[in-house]
Each structure stands twice: as structure tokens, then as C-alpha cells.
Amino acid sequence: MIIDSYNRPHQYLRISLTDNCNLRCFYCMPEEDYEFTPAPQLMTAPEIQAIAKVFVEEGVNKIRLTGGEPLVRKEAPAIIASLASLPAELTITTNATRLHRFADLLQQSGVRSVNISLDTLNENKFEMITRRNQFSVVKDNIALMLDKSFRVKVNMVVMRGINDNEINDFVRWTHHTPVEIRFIEFMPFSGNRWSSNKVFTMGEILDVIGKEFAFEPVQGEKSDTAKKFAVPGHAGNFAVISTMSAHFCGSCNRMRLTADGKLKNCLFSSEETDLLSALREGRDIRPLIHACIATKAEKLGGQLATNFEQVQPESIHNRSMIAIGG
Q1: Are strands 262-264 and 273-274 parallel, antiparallel or unpaired?
Q2: Which among 65, 128, 129 is positioned nearest to 94, based on CA atoms?
Q3: 239-292 confidence digits (pLDDT tens)
Q4: Is residue 1 assigned to a domain?
Q5: Neighbours of 35 (CB within 10 A)
Q6: Of 91, 175, 213, 223, whose Cβ has the fewest other Cβ atoms within 10 Å?
Q7: How many Cβ atoms are within 10 Å of 240's Cβ, its own excluded?
Q8: Which helix or strand (DSSP H or E) is residue 103 part of?
Q9: Confidence (pTM)
């Protein structure tokens, strides 16, 4: 078992397959001419499987594939198939633009749940946020995954003055559609133009929803990052990920492996542990994994102030979101 100094067991590994993406969401990817990691520096498909196998042997029971956009990587089918052989739940976070090409493979690989990023239900605003015209493809692929009986969670990053006026549009969507909408507070990363006045907090989100809908809390798991709620009579539900206004670090069980093989013990940690170089040198990566998690900060990577209004984004030492893995 991988346990940190605060006695938190870590059983959930998020693996980034690539820092490449076919969308250009400004809160994730800093610039249009972003320089992607050269291929020789990325974990190969066999290396991903080998590293994941060690984590599973050390107690990991859930693996999530992320990016960038994981499905733009050419080796994605081989990676998914190889990881499916491990005794761990396999899931994926995607922008859904290529899901129609992978739906059957995901089913065959035992994937039952997908997280899909969609920050607006307005086609024009979608193009403004992503800098690409793929709205209808994403919506069609959400419908496809539901038709194939996948559990679908839709991640919506709420940004004041940009899409906060669509919160109840997303809740209305759950009336007849069995999706879980996950409203995510806007978080600071390198180059994403974050400022505290753009954060729309969980309290504000629930206040907006409460003006139109009666809702009730839903009991989740101890390690859940999302606080779940249900509107009686709705086929779907909604949740809030309140990283900035009400962190959930006390029960965190997550680790992140970047596409270039660096282990991060927190989304906001400044330090990383190079597992890929050690693997290529033939060294045992287990001591490195345990040492990395042992140094995990109590909360927010040891970098962010508990009061998000006091966070100074220029003082944060971290990668961009796309380089970490969503």
C-alpha cells in the first residue's frame, strides 16, 4: 500500500498519455504555438504498462487515462488494451472529439465510465473557449456513449463572466439525460490567466441552482473530490468540485503520472519524481514511488493559500494543466 505521512492511502493513479490536444482551451493550454513534449521523452506503450503494473502491485485499484487529449496519441489503442489486463478499474477523461472511433475498444477493455470535458452548451461559445469548431461532434459522442450504456460525467469548468450563466442550462440537461454534470471551480496553472475574481465558488453555484431547482445531497465515497447532489425526478445529477473554496485534501488518494514519466503527488505540487529515467536505467521504481508520496503536503500541494483570494498565481511553481494531465 502507498501511504503518505498523513496516513492517507493512495489507490488511484492518473496517467497522462500525451500533452498534445486537438483543442486549445485557454484555461488548460497557454498558447496556440505550445511546444509539445518530443516523442523520445514520452513513456512508450510498454513503459506505461510496466509502470502501471508496479502501481497496481503496490495497491492501486483505479487508473484514469488523461492528457492533453489521450485519444490523439497513436498508441492509445495498444495502451488501453494492455492496461485492461491489469486488475484495476480503467477509466478515461477525454474531450470526446474522437470517442466515436474508440467506443467499441473501450467497451471491450472493460471501461464503464468516461469523463467528458464540455464547458458550454452554446456552439459559438464552445468555439471561443476551445478555439476549434467541434461542438456537434462532442454532443453527438456524448449521446453515443449513453446509447452504449457508459456512465458519462461531464466536466464543466465554471468561469465568472464566461459560462457561469449556463449553470442551470446544464442542470436542465439532466432532467431527461442520465449524465452527471460536474461543476469545477477555476484553478490556477502556469499560463492559464487565472485570477481569483474569475472563480465562481461552490456556494455561488449552489445558490444559482437553488433559485430554480430543489436538490438534495447524495452520499459519496470518502475519497470523492466531487460533492454530489440530485434533483428529484431528474434522470441525471450534478456535483461540484470545490478545490478553491472548500478543498478536499484530507481524504485524497490520487497520484499523477505525467506523459514524460514524472510522478506528482498532488495536482499543485512543485516537486516531481522521475520514474521513467529510473525505469530505463533498470532501477526499481518502488522506492521512488513511496518516497514521493511520503513527502506529499497536507493540502493544496503546499503552495496555495487556503483562502483562494490570497493566492498569487505568479508565485506558483507548476506546469500548465495540459502538461500535468487533467
Answers
A1: antiparallel
A2: 65
A3: 999 988 988 899 999 999 999 999 999 988 989 999 999 999 999 999 999 999
A4: no
A5: 7
A6: 175
A7: 24
A8: helix 99-108
A9: 0.94
- How far apart are alpha carbons 97 and 139 in whole angstroms? 9
Query: Residue 144 is part of which domain span?
Result: 12-324
Map 250-296 to HEC letters: HHCCEEEECCCCEEECCCCCCCCEEHHHHHHCCCCCHHHHHHHHHCC
DSSP of 12-49: EEEEE--S--SS--TTT---TT--PPPGGGSPPHHHHH
How far is Cα 251 from Cα 104, in angstroms, rounded to an integer?
34
Task: Indicate the number of domains in the chain.
Answer: 1
Backbone angles phi, psi at 151, to 5 degrees: -80, 125
Cβ proximity of 192 and 323 under 8 Å: no
Asked whether residue 108 is assigned to any structural domain, the reply reads yes
258: CATH? 3.20.20.70
The reply to whether 5 falls in a domain is: no
Cα–Cα separations (whole angstroms), residue 105 to 46, 101, 131, 147: 18, 8, 29, 15
